[in-house]
């Protein structure tokens, strides 16, 4: 039973890391959209670059949510009830973002509206994902039934907000590297400058978040793996910016993806075995051992995952191979 619980913890982390890498670049494109797009031709390139991928990328988030619901139902209940307002904002942002992608080409009179719907629909999720994760890392107030006992403003503390802005910078970095990989000319040069700017912002925020994290979760500093993964993430950050300066766009995108893996390795190391940390009373915390489903459920789900995940990965690889290469302004 214990090994099944541990396996599902890391499978969910893996799914979230996959989502962060894949949907991270199209959210990042949206965050950088006002700077990257100077003409309708630029905007068409950006929309066409992410068009074949964005909806498939979100499958990873849906799968992670479904896995959390089935493997750790009390965690799902506590998180989705406690973060209800924030999650509704994310949901509506993603809806308007999807609408903007479809309507932009077919409603030229209101393109300004769809431009900003795309930007805000990318900005809010990129920020709020990190805020939610930061709250889980630092801890939230839970009552005796392990229900969230705070309010919306309880979630707006320095460390979670720092995690939110750090996630925003990480998505911007991923979006910039993807844009440079898929574009040419002035748009590619603007993407490269955005990568360098987002990269330095990311560095400042990562170091600040690590400092705040030591204050928010003091016992985390005693885990050597945290400092190892932090050092690895910094090395990957440096290599990403170096590849960008050298014009190695494919390598920069790959390295930026590994930066996201480094961040999730940090999260997993800080959190394990806790899934929802309770403020004030650690005995109320939800962990992989006290909040999991039955052995039968975890076993059946693991069998499904061993069949389903290779199919999802295979489809993802196939889609990216079919749509590889630069995007031209005149191609819809």
Keywords:
2 strands; 332 residues; 76% helix
Please provide a written account of the structure.
- With 332 residues, the protein is mainly α.
- 76% of the residues lie in helices and 2% in strands.
- The chain is built from twelve helices and two strands; from the N terminus they run H-H-H-H-H-H-H-H-H-H-H-E-E-H.
- The protein has a two-stranded antiparallel ribbon with strand order 1-2.
- The longest helix has 35 residues, at 2-36.
- It starts with a helix and ends in a 10-residue tail after the last helix.
Radius of gyration: 20 Å
Please provide the count of β strands: 2
Strand coverage percent: under 5%
Query: Based on helices, strands and strand pairing, what is the structural class?
Result: mainly alpha
Task: Tell me the strand order in the biggest sheet.
Answer: 1-2
End-to-end CA span: 51 Å
Shape: globular
Catalogue the unreliable spans. none
Indicate how many domains the architecture comprises. Answer: 1
Q: Could you estimate the helical fraction of the residues in percent?
A: over 70%
Q: Specify the biggest β-sheet.
A: 2 strands, antiparallel
Average of per-residue pLDDT values: 91
Run of helices and strands: HHHHHHHHHHHEEH
The total count of helices amounts to 12
